User: What shape does this take?
Amino acid sequence: EADIYQTPRYLVIGTGKKITLECSQTMGHDKMYWYQQDPGMELHLIHYSYGVNSTEKGDLSSESTVSRIRTEHFPLTLESARPSHTSQYLCASSEPTTGIYGYTFGSGTRLTVV
Amino acid sequence: QKEVEQNSGPLSVPEGAIASLNCTYSDRGSQSFFWYRQYSGKSPELIMSIYSNGDKEDGRFTAQLNKASQYVSLLIRDSQPSDSATYLCAVNNGSGTYKYIFGTGTRLKVLA
Assistant: This one.
């Protein structure tokens, strides 16, 4: 079944550690996105990609980086985690005709930095 | 002014009633409008999309769009306790970059 997968689902990690949040989709979507959402708050776009080797920063300043080497894979990396990075990270993808079909979201990764 | 505005709620309605959720947006060039439902601790789930002025119905859900007034609304008929969630309005930014701007969401509580 075509879907979008995020791992890990929950992560508790110490300050200063390097972490990579995984996102993969089996729908063949060109466009992929990373959003950050604090509890009860709005979604903020932190990175997006329109295809392989295409990545852009979003509207919210973030210390994370992303890569898009394969269409189906869009990992997000934090080189040195800090408590301020504690949040929920949501990955999404969309059809080429994005204006019609909207986003499909993964289950999210809830990150806690201690 | 925020680009997409929603009343944060909570909006409380009795079971079986019609819930009306509203969203206004600032970019007149916006062309695509979406409603997502997000249960606590879960990721958003697309429930409705609308692109033309007027109403669009899907089961118990009706989306309404008025581009002249720059608002989009979601009606939920025969509300059920399982409809209790946060409803997010999303609008494309009108510049063709395929990025959506999300509102802060309206929390709906359907009382049994």
